[in-house]
Structures are given as structure tokens and as C-alpha cells.
Design a protein that fits this description.
Number of strands: 3
Strand content: 5-15%
Strand order of the largest sheet: 1-3-2
Radius of gyration: 14 Å
Structural class: alpha/beta
Shape: flat
Length: 83
């Protein structure tokens, strides 16, 4: 049985330093997979911001991001989420 990996969840308002923390961890040689709301929103949602159905699509994308983090953790990988 594989030991579950750690999930580190960085949460904060825009420009609060979440991405800077991720960059500092990378520079320090930390080994992790990186997920972010922006990555999932930009690559999954095919609806313009505020258009009908946008918020439902965003909620689904965030749900899928969390499921993806669980998959990595179940495989023993460390995940950092920038939300």
C-alpha cells in the first residue's frame, strides 16, 4: 500500500503571495505537483467570464482540481494547490 502524499493548500486573495511561495519552494528544490484555480479555469472552462453558465463551469473545474489533487495524493505524491 502506498502512503498518501501531502496536500498543501495555499489560499488567499489576489496578489497575496501564493504564487511567490510556490516559486520559492521550487527554487529551494522541493518536489511537488502544482495545481491552481487559474490553470483549471484557463484550460477547462470554455465560457467567457460572467457569461451564462460560467459560475457552474467554474465550480465544476474547482471540484475536478480537488479530485485531481486527491489522485496525486493517493499515488503518494505531494501536491501544492494555489487557490
Amino acid at each position: 500500500m502506498t502512503t498518501k502524499g501531502t496536500i498543501i493548500y495555499l489560499n488567499g486573495v489576489t496578489s497575496s503571495g501564493k504564487t511567490s511561495i510556490v516559486e520559492a519552494l521550487r527554487a529551494a528544490g522541493a518536489d511537488f505537483y502544482y495545481l491552481s484555480d487559474d490553470i483549471f479555469e484557463d484550460n477547462i472552462i470554455d465560457i467567457e467570464y460572467g457569461a451564462p453558465g460560467y459560475w457552474e463551469s467554474l465550480a465544476e473545474a474547482v471540484f475536478l482540481m480537488h479530485k485531481t489533487a486527491c489522485l496525486f495524493s493517493d499515488a503518494g505524491k505531494t501536491v501544492v494547490i494555489d487557490s
